[in-house]
Amino acid sequence: MSYKASFRVWRGDSAGGGLQDFTVEVNEGEVVLDIIHRLQATQASDLAVRWNCKAGKCGSCSAEINGRPRLLCMTRMSVFDEDEVITVTPMRTFPVIRDLVTDVSYNYTKAREIPAFTPPADLKPGEYRMKQVDVERSQEFRKCIECYLCQNTCHVIRDHDENKENFAGPRYLMRIAELEMHPLDVADRRHAAQDEHGLGYCNITKCCTEVCPEGIHITDNALIPMKERVADRRYDPVVWLGSKIFRR
Ligand code: SF4
Ligand code: F3S
Ligand code: FES
Question: Of 209, 211, 230, 236, which is closest to residue 220 (Cα–Cα)?
Fold first, then answer.
């Protein structure tokens, strides 16, 4: 069954823009990305949108639908009422390039700032051993498709460009937590998380977790454990020594 839907799509570029209204056909089983493609095919051939897989796996089609950060290809039209006006806008936290396409290079910069997995120097390939529980912990974090919806949502940077320099965002704090909890990683992740990547800015509002299309428990399984490790008194050698002496 088909019907006509009312769409409002943000059009513009870095110099500015606004919402443009469209009436567009919707067919059974379609997702919002189908409708954007229909607009390109029938009414707005120059409408810019980034996408690749149409299967929720490439992380390219992130945008905001009625103000909520979502993947365009995984948002079914059936979740909206037929007479509802559907507003599609680009992710707000990143600079607009054109229409629904934003410049997400902030995320690549943050990714590059994290030192790679660092196993002990004397451990040779083939000697790596891990418990299954440690493998499973990493696997949850590795489901990330780098859609950046969590980065877009976190209030620390959403309306605060000035915090971007000092805050890696939930996706990359999660990466640091993954490495910190990895039994074979020997790099100092705790000092770096706090002093260089802005873990202290996170006040565990969990908005990042709410929008993650992979259902990763970013806050509970990565950010809170990382905060606990940073706060662990034993981490500070002086405090640790003091606690040993005074316990006697
Ligand atoms: Fe997207 Fe989730 Fe990865 Fe964040 S953690 S970039 S929301 S998949
Ligand atoms: Fe931001 Fe997520 Fe922390 S939304 S404040 S990184 S819990
Ligand atoms: Fe790949 Fe939507 S097009 S996640």
Answer: 209
